Amino acid sequence: MVQTRGNLAVREQEQRQSSQQYRQKTTVVTRRAELPMREKMLYLASVLVAVALCSIVAWRYVHIYDLNHQIATIQSETNQINKDIAQAERDKQELRQAIVPTALSMGLVQATEHEPIFVERKSGEETQPAAEGSN
């Protein structure tokens, strides 16, 4: 030991150097204990329930998408049918307007209110009941 002779400001150099030369390091290693089997099963069950719920929600979205696709297809078909009906109505109107000029060009005579037109029956024709004529 070094004597300081009453001077407290002087420290021992040897102790200081020895503490710098060797420093003991300690590390704490903690090992986690394994989870009990019940807790593992609980976690597994909760994951399975979450996956099932997500699957159900996804399936519902797919079903809704399919319904929307069917609705769009049916609406486009309906629009096409409505266009066809409108075209048929136009054709019908044109044909109605063309009946009289076509008949007159073929030599037919238009009936008036005061003059009825009589059509003679030819000798070989017979009237058939409506039920037999439809077959």
UniProtKB/TrEMBL annotation:
Q: Which protein, by its recorded name, is this?
A: Cell division protein FtsL
Coiled-coil ranges per the record?
A: 71-98
Q: Where are the transmembrane segments?
A: 41-62
Keywords of the record, alphabetical order, are: Coiled coil, Membrane, Transmembrane, Transmembrane helix
Which species does the entry assign this protein to? Saccharibacillus brassicae
Where are the residues of the annotated region Disordered?
1-23
